[in-house]
Amino acid sequence: MSENKHIVLELTEVSLSYHSARKTFDRGRHHVLKDVSMQLYDGETLGIIGRNGVGKTTLLQLIAGILAPTRGQVKMHSGKCASLLTLGLGFKPDLSGRDNALLSAMLQGSSRQQATSFLNDIKEFSELGDSFTEPVKNYSAGMRSRLAFTTALMTHVDVLLIDEILSVGDAHFRGKALTAMQSRITGEQTVVFVSHMADQVEKMCDRVIWLEDGHIVAEGDPGEVTSAYAESVARAHNDNMAK
Amino acid sequence: MPLLHYLRLIDIMARMGLRADATRFFLGYIWWILEPLLWVGIFYFVFVTIMGTRGPDFLMFLATGKLVFVWFSKSVTQASNSIIGAKGLVGKINVPKTLFPMAVVQEGVYRQAAVFVMLGIILIINGYTATATWWYLVPLMIVNYVVIVACAFVGACLVCLARDFAQIISLGMIFLMFTSGVFFDVRALDPEKTKLVLDLNPIAFLLDAYRQIMMYSTAPDMLHLFTIGVGFGVLLCVMVLFMRRRSQYLALRALTA
Predict the structure, then answer these.
(1) CA B94-B96-B99 angle, 5° bins
(2) What distance in Å separates the CA atoms of residue A107 and residue A89, rounded to the nearest whole number?
(3) Hey, which of A73, A158, B67, B74 would disulfide with A12, CB 3.0 to 4.6 Å?
(4) With contact defined as beta carbons under 8 Å apart, do B257 and A21 qualify?
(5) What is the mean pLDDT of chain B?
(6) How far apart are CA B14 and CA B226, in angstroms?
(7) Residue A54 phi, psi (nearest 5)
(8) Which of A90, A103, A135 lies closest to B23 in CB terms?
(9) How far is it, in rounded angstroms, from Cα B16 to Cα B146?
(10) What is the pLDDT of residue B241?
(11) Alpha-carbon torsion (B165, B168, B174, B178), positive or negative
């Protein structure tokens, strides 16, 4: 599907490993990603699926330029910027939801005026009401994730990187969040979407990459890849039960 | 990140840090003034009431030294832990890593402004006069600020590389407090030792300069001050370059080490 589209981002044989303070594996060396190569095309929604701890978030961090690969190359098409959309951009619990939202927006590059103009939308969408001006430490977990999701939603970037974001809040807010997310994804926005939930990925993505133990196992049509992934998860589960 | 946006962010992060701090305490912003006043109160109690041998001059001598030293030690110690303390953020966006120590230092600047005003008032109440020599405080404070920022950057990087440095830095601050003449007059030592301490320890020189200006209306050794400013200014630039070029490396260390 994507042959005639422009490549926005390219990863060539990317590996990432690091030394940890405690000598556990391979003399304390952890290998998070091993020889991962992939391309991202303009306007597509790419899903990355895999169990917890296989390197999905690290892959996003490499794409966003937060981390640099130990080996290999991450090449972003010039003039484009990628931003990672994750929950709870390091909230300061003693500050109000409003202050936290303002700070998050400014850290992601909005000017003070822009950030201030977002605040009303954020207050409204998150349905926090008067709690918006209360310290975040008094929030319930649901309120916190509502604030986090809404703040994240306001960022405007060329490549949107979404990390396990749609498991937030109660059923009502989750539905609303999903709709808001989908309306952004279906537009011209280029998206990389990470999840361990096969059905979400299948519904939202044009193309899927299955990551296992730091490398790519399968890549292609969402239906095929996610069902192969779901089978493997079920098999692993059955094996565990048998033991 | 454009410079203007970077500076705005430092300012807003510092203000929010102060606000967060104030909401934590019942007395809020009053602590800005109360803390240094309590320091002076403790010194008064120990050195004037209990030991009884020293007069109010010594009290002012201690207050000047201690309140200036705390600016340095608190800023550097807190800034050292600032990058790993912002782990949640560091793993989510690629921002300049200097932002975190700078915000902490800026917080200290706002606090210290109140402390300096109070120190000036206490000195004047105690019979010292604010002369034209006090203008020397301007270059002195600028150099002091440069020293703090440079040390804050070094500390923040070291703690990223290994958490153990946090321990060493806080111990180092105690060592520095005892060797910088907070509690004794470096000029009361043998002339040779005085020279040695002032030459080797820039903090001792800075503390002494504040006292010379504010208590004795004497101009500091400007060449010495200038040398410290240039030395730490160069260190600061080197650190900024390092932290820019190794931004992703520092992020990895902060997230994993």
Answers:
(1) 125
(2) 9
(3) A73
(4) yes
(5) 92
(6) 28
(7) -100, 0
(8) A135
(9) 23
(10) 97
(11) negative
The number of folded domains in chain B is 1
For residue B222, the tally of other CB atoms under 10 A from its CB is 12
Question: Which residue numbers of B have CB closer than 8 Å to A's CBs?
Answer: 1, 5, 8-9, 12-13, 16-17, 19-21, 23-24, 86-95, 162-163, 248-249, 251-252, 255-257
Per-residue pLDDT tens over the stretch A108-131: 778 888 888 888 888 888 888 888
ipTM of the shown complex:
0.82
- Average pLDDT score over residue span B14-29: 89
CB contact under 8 A, B19 and A99: yes
Helix boundaries (H) for A89-221: 97-107, 112-126, 141-153, 171-185, 198-204
Residue B196 in this model has a pLDDT that exceeds 90: yes
pLDDT score of A89 more than 60: no
Q: What percent of chain A has pLDDT over 70?
A: 86
**Residue in B with minimal Cα distance to A17:** B252
CB contact under 8 A, B162 and A21: yes
**Torsion (CA) B174, B175, B179, B184 in degrees, nearest 10:** 40
Confidence of residue A1 (pLDDT cuts 50, 70, 90): very low
Q: What is the dihedral of CA A102, A104, A107, A109, to 10 degrees?
A: -70
- Domain membership of residue B109 as a residue range: 3-256
B115-158 per-position pLDDT tens digit: 999 999 989 998 898 899 999 999 999 999 999 999 999 999 99
**A20/B9 Cβ within 8 A:** no
Q: What are the CA-CA distances from residue B249 to residues A18, A67, A73, B85 (Å)?
A: 10, 7, 15, 16
Round to the nearest angstrom and report the end-to-end CA distance of chain B: 27
Contacts of residue A31, defined as CB under 8 A and 6 or more positions apart, other chains included, come to: A15, A16, A17, A214
**Strand, helix or coil for residue B2:** coil
Helix (H, G, I), strand (E, B) or coil at B257: coil
